[in-house]
Amino acid sequence: xxxxxxxxxxxxxxxxxxxxxxxxxxxxxxxxxxxxxxxxxxxxxxxxxxxxxxxxxxxxxxxxxxxxxxxxxxxxxxxxxxxxxxxxxxxxxxxxxxxxxxxxxxxxxxxxxxxxxxxxxxxxxxxxxxxxxxxxxxxxxxxxxxxxxxxxxxxxxxxxxxxxxxxxxxxxxxxxxxxxxxxxxxxxxxxxxxxxxxxxxxxxxxxxxxxxxxxxxxxxxxxxxxxxxxxxxxxxxxxxxxxxxxxxxxxxxxxxxxxxxxxxxxxxxxxxxxxxxxxxxxxxxxxxxxxxxxxxxxxxxxxxxxxxxxxxxxxxxxxxxxxxxxxxxxxxxxxxxxxxxxxxxxxxxxxxxxxxxxxxxxxxxxxxxxxxxxxxxxxxxxxxxxxxxxxxxxxxxxxxxxxxxxx
Length: 407
What we know:
Elements: H1 4-7, E1 34-40, E2 50-59, E3 62-69, H2 104-111, E4 115-125, E5 131-142, E6 148-151, H3 153-156, E7 161-165, E8 171-180, E9 185-189, E10 211-216, E11 225-240, E12 243-250, E13 262-264, E14 270-278, E15 287-291, H4 292-305, E16 312-313, E17 316-321, H5 324-329, E18 336-342, H6 345-350, E19 357-361, E20 364-365, H7 369-376, E21 384-391, E22 394-401, E23 403-404
Antiparallel strand pairs: 1-2, 2-14, 3-5, 4-5, 4-7, 5-6, 6-9, 7-8, 8-9, 10-11, 10-13, 11-12, 12-15, 13-14, 14-15, 16-23, 17-18, 18-19, 19-20, 19-21, 21-22
């Protein structure tokens, strides 16, 4: 029998160790877990590379294990196409940074009714085939009087039940409209009257030093809490939970449970969706938010189509191999991106096989699913790309026609 601890090569020149243990694409769970983020180098062409500077980062969501339930199985949607749905569209407009600046009290008064608490329940199996309920908590922002709420995908991902608590304490069950795990954006909807919606601001108008107010549900039980700070950096490129994100950085106090909450500018307009904060003894005052210009575009697509359209995909189901245990599970001896299953007809006809390790997409080295996500963002469905894989310790070049992602 092989000794995996001795034979596994975590210093492979082909792949580097990034992220947690195996996380299959677009089905990752964030429940209060510490993640590492890496500050990448500047963009080169169509992809992002990374420096070795790593700080521990926590996704700002609370999750707790709860009641054990027998006889219930949580269905996974891994590797399947999205279901079609018909929803009414909503338009968004960006508010120009005009008029008088408002006091912090005025900003809070304007938006406190638009920020909601979100509680979730999901059912999972343990190693003994017992089912248990995990309860999560986060925040969201009402962006339309029809009941559409913008939040983070990791807040509602894999949830069987979503409950929204309004400022007056009213609890309303919510439905998932659509989710973009790749950009950590989701839209849910509630049926309620007399809702207060936030006004979209223009995050491109922000500059370092701009005043911001964060409103959310810190610690999962302090809904309506507000904190103030400034924008301390723009366009901060981070790898969070195996996703490459470009975020706003703020020194406003951010805590677990704030995920999905609003970041508002000095005019009271929504300019960001809080996503994460830094942790560790060597760092403090680092919070991050998705710029609203990006989040609002995704939200519009989710409301109109239930998913993000026009996104290129290879047509494979992949797993990140990032440690010896996962490598042993899939019988490989290197870190990187492992093809678990070939699902698309184009990928099959091109010659991709289950068990291949993705190596390059054109000139971009693929060391994690985040790298693949970023590389594909530079292409459109229908384009043909060269993909290099490692198969039986040899490299194989294949030409693959990209399809449209259904996730």
